[in-house]
Amino acid sequence: MKAGIYNFDNIHRGDSVAATTFSMKTSADSLPIDLTGAAIKVAFRYEDILIEKNIGSGVTVSDASAGVFVLDSFEFANIGKYKYDIEITFTDGTITTFVKGFIKVIKDVI
Known about the structure:
0% of the residues lie in helices and 54% in strands. By secondary structure, it is mainly β.
């Protein structure tokens, strides 16, 4: 499966990133991919800063059989252009990078 691209809108340092819902579907026929028992990791990286979110710690699976999960709202403490990806590990051990992109965290006026 080829990773999709999703770039977040720019955000000011210290502001909350809105909770973002993702729906995992097959590329061939757009059927939902069952996430039951799967592990989901979202990793943001800028230089030596790494922020990771997992199920129960920043990621919420809202409908596993429909392939729907939420990256919960959170804040960035440091400015920079962060690359990120979402990696899913299925119960059979298959690992797939579902989506990737970036978010730019910009300075406040003060």
